[in-house]
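From the methods appendix. Each design record in this collection lists the tokenized structure first, followed by the designed amino acid sequence. Records were kept in a plain field format so they could be parsed without special tools. The example shown here is representative of the layout used throughout.

RECORD:
FOLD TOKENS (122 positions):
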């Protein structure tokens, strides 16, 4: 059973952010997957990287979360409009926003499935 928050509410959140010009282009990057070699003495190869342009915005974490050591000083909260990113973000992915590149540390999804919240570290 799907959540009551999915669908229509997610669409309203996403369209509201776009209409208010609160989101901008964000570059998503995932390194290619490691392909194990046929023989242990050979070097592994790598699959193609995954790159997407999605929409979102970058925000600061509260000083309370920093003081409680939940996040580190300098970590940023990267919010991505979920329907603009065709893959599920994972720790280890890279995000470039506002000219700065961040390593994704944690990934959360809101109950309406409208947004991804990524903890980014530069």
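DESIGN:
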């Amino acid at each position: 059973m799907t959540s009551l928050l999915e669908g229509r509410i997610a669409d309203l959140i996403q369209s509201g952010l776009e209409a208010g010009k609160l989101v901008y282009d964000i570059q998503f990057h995932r390194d290619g997957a490691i392909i194990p070699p046929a023989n242990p003495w050979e070097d592994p190869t790598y699959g193609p990287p995954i790159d997407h342009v999605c929409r979102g915005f970058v925000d600061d974490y509260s000083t309370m979360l920093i003081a409680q050591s939940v996040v580190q000083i300098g970590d940023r909260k990267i919010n991505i409009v979920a329907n603009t990113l065709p893959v599920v973000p994972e720790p280890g992915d890279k995000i470039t926003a506002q000219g700065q590149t961040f390593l994704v540390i944690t990934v959360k999804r809101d109950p309406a499935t409208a947004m991804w919240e990524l903890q980014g570290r530069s």
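APPENDIX NOTE: The chain has one domain: 8-121.
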